[in-house]
Amino acid sequence: MREELELRRSDSINDKLIRLTVEGLSAERISAELDGIMPPAKVRLRVDELLKETDWLNNAQQEVALIRVMRRNLSQLQAFLEDGIDGDAMKISLSYIESILKRMDKQQEGTQAKLDEYNANVGRLIGRVVDQALTYMKGALRQQVDGDEWDVLVRDALRAARIEIEKHQRVDPS
Fold first, then answer.
1. Is this model's pTM higher than 0.70 or not?
2. Using the 8-state DSSP alphabet, how is residue 38 labeled?
3. Residue 82 to residues 1, 10, 76: CA-CA distances in angstroms?
4. Which of 1, 39, 90, 127 is the most buried (most CB within 10 A)?
5. How many CB atoms are closer than 10 A to CB 40?
6. At CB < 8 A and 24+ separation, what contacts does 103-112 make?
7. CA neighbours within 13 Å on the CB side: how many for 12?
8. pLDDT (tens digit per residue) in 33-84
């Protein structure tokens, strides 16, 4: 257990509280693991507070946070293996973490593909709605605005809209 505590020495007290709770330890045991710096009653209260604080995180943010923690732990485990520490349990942990990360990466790719498809569909719908609105406006204003002048104004407006949309589009790093 001491090696595990050494491995996680960089964790904050809040990180340790959450990790030990997730591992299924009682508040009394967590208090003991923290060398008694926090009584069991305070452990229970603080864990409840921490769990409530994360309500503002959406699923995607929680997933990103989890991946970051797992990647950090993975690199720490790899460093321990390189230092020659008995590695059977660590090798199993590394294998487990790597398989979870691969699954999460695939899931994230699928989620991104669905999001891209959704955004494309929304873009097409917005395009149709704008086209219908402009067609209506052209008909309604045909007495006040020349048709050729209208077409020039629409092209300019759509060019400006395209430039604005491109400012907000996801940039693909590849």
1. no
2. S
3. 20, 19, 10
4. 90
5. 15
6. 104/63, 104/66, 104/67, 108/63, 111/60
7. 5
8. 999 999 999 998 888 887 776 554 566 666 766 777 777 777 777 777 777 7
